[in-house]
Amino acid sequence: MSxxxxxxxxxxxxxxxxxxxxxxxxxxxxxxxxxxGFSQENLFQIDLVGVTRKPVxxxxxxxxxxxxxxxxxxxxxxxxxxxxxxxxxKQIALNAPFVDWIKKQRIRHDSELASLCRGAFxxxxxxxxxxxxxxxxxxxxxxxxxxxxxVELLPDKVISEDNGIYSSGGAYSFLNxxxxxxxxxxxxxxxxxxxxxAEIEFDRLDQxxxxxxxxxxxxxxxxxxxxxxYIEAHYGEKISVEQLAERAATSARxxxxxxxxxxxxxxxxxxxxxxxxxxxxxxxxxxxxIHEVMYNTGYQDDKTFxxxxxxxxxxxxxxxxxxxxxxxxxx
Length: 331
Prior knowledge:
Oligomer: single chain
CATH topology of the largest domain: Rossmann fold
């Protein structure tokens, strides 16, 4: 018996690729699964589900016509929430009917839920993610934390799974979550075939190498802001917490508490992140050796530098250079 997949068609503004891409990849999986004899019928019946059946226009010229309305779907097995764009509070208000419907499907039928990119905001509005882990686009992490402090944000993850609730990181990493779901429902062979045909990187788990670290400065603690500016200007020098606390005219213990509250990083984490971000930019844009980059960013120990780089960038320095410095990679 076929399962049912509901791909939501949000009101307002949405990332249309997350709507069309979801439908296309599951249709691709249906076709391969059936042709290989794994089943005689499509594993999933797929519907584009709107608040009503009225077509929704995105980006001025792309119109998506729902195949079913919310009231027409009594039971569904999997709900995909596409990425939203713009002011998240306004988008959630526009799509309030989806919030109640998703809750009903989860509670009554134990439907599995998957948010793509900023679709996490709409899924979190249901309250079903309280105490659970969630991934979303790194550009919206601060906004997400502010709106949903009860949800555990997983900033480095491309894919998050928690008891049948899934979420993806930013931009086109939604394709990685879709492949993950294809593997779960159709099997690994079908997922690998889809990844090859669609040319999607398989088994990608984190989005660290795509994060442009930008220190959190949306706070009112001037002493911490001055410390941030000092770190960013003197990243190549030896910097201690005691030194920063003295500049802020407070104790080290109080400074650490204030810094963590304001930036969501400890002072040491902030120093490390700034240094690794500078290292990434030097590896992207200069012919400097990895050791030269290491010394430029305040590190003397090769093992420490490589360990921290892998932690924050998701790749080794050499892997990062080969992937993002085109001239060096082709040299």
